[in-house]
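WARN retry 2 of 3 for item q-0093 after timeout on previous attempt; input resubmitted unchanged.
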Amino acid sequence: MALIISILRLALDILAFPVHLLNFLGLWNWICKKWFPYLLMWFSVTYNKQMGSRKRELFSNLQDFEGPSGKLSLLEVGCGTGTNFKFYPPGCRVTCIDPNPNFDKFLIKSIAENRHVQFERFLVATGENMHPVADGSMDVVVCTLVLCSVENQKRFLQEVCRVLRPGGAFYFMEHVAAEPSTWKYFWQQVLDPLWYLLFDGCNLTRESWKALERASFSKLKLQHLQAPLLCQLVCPHIYGYAVK
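OK item q-0093 returned
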């Protein structure tokens, strides 16, 4: 099976030679950073149509984690186009982090469309190094479709714990690896290297629930589901929240 996967990967690499050439010349990352926000804007609309009910379920108890100020301080990591703003409670104070600065104009549009939230600031940083955010300053941290692309999940979750106040919560909704020995997992393995290159560092075969289980949260509520998405490769999902 490993040989078949290697042969199919080679065939895909040949078909994607122009992309590999641009990557070799150091141009692909710049191109990807420019066009990825437009792709994500389109995908986010479709994703919210299919997963909106799950998101509303996931975020239904956000206000339970309000701090002493009476307002929810929320940090969204990998905020993208701001597609989650509509699910946040009124008066929520939102800080956004994303390593791609090209999302800023999309965020401005989302902020204008979601006046019920109080936008604080947009920080260009990676999830593994959120140094502009103070220790224990957030009631809630949110990430959706982000654990697939952070370089170091362990370091990222350590940073999440650092910025959360004691008793704060980390909310997540992520696509993950399919069950081993399934055709879905087979094609995830075949396409993973090219997918990573095309979609800004996204991994198809990550077992992100294991990283969450190993992290130093006092409570973890996690569920697996098959998302009703057209692309079967990203249908396996986990969602839930963890308490510091």
